[in-house]
Amino acid sequence: xxxxxxxxxxxxxxxxxxxxxxxxxxxxxxxxxxxxxxxxxxxxxxxxxxxxxxxxxxxxxxxxxxxxxxxxxxxxxxxxxxxxxxxxxxxxxxxxxxxxxxxxxxxxxxxxxxxxxxxxxxxxxxxxxxxxxxxxxxxxxxxxxxxxxxxxxxxxxxxxxxxxxxxxxxxxxxxxxxxxxxxxxxxxxxxxxxxxxx
Length: 198
Prior knowledge:
The protein is mainly β. The chain has 2 domains: about 10-85, Beta Barrel (Elongation Factor Tu (Ef-tu), domain 3), CATH 2.40.30.20; about 105-195, Elongation Factor Tu (Ef-tu), domain 3 (Beta Barrel). It has 3 helices and 13 strands, in the order E-E-E-E-E-H-E-E-E-E-E-E-E-H-E-H. It has helices at about 65-70, 160-165, 185-195, and strands spanning about 10-15, 20-25, 40-45, 45-55, 55-60, 80-85, 105-115, 115-125, 135-140, 145, 150, 155-160, 175-180. A 7-stranded antiparallel beta sheet has the order 10-9-13-7-8-12-11. The radius of gyration is 17 Å and the shape is globular. The two termini are about 30 Å apart.
């Protein structure tokens, strides 16, 4: 379980195919400090298990299914990724609950200044309109954000300077893909209501 409050930007050192899975190696400083093998880390909002740790180097196995369903398939040497360790329930919890289970990939249609603020508009996948709620929560590349505008299946969020500085969003551009995780409560509510209608 994650909060969507990104702890640092990691740098991809390699991402190549192995016989059993793809192997992703990421340089991280803060996130690597107290990890143990098998711990969960959100990488661009995708929950991955650490399989090797060497000082500031984290290694993950990535399944073909994960590559197919997320923007991890677009990672290259030097790509920046958002990193967050899993939650600890011994203090404050900011952001909102994220599982690290990506629901789909969205496409950036705008990322730039609107007046004095930065707006990010993303086109969500088909059949996802019901999860887009004004002032609702959404995870974009593992970042907890608040939906500010909705038009059909395009959503807009506002980005504070801190978010642009500490996450990889500032390096993206129009046409780039982002991982989307919709609100968990909305998904469960939809499932329960659909079963009651039967």
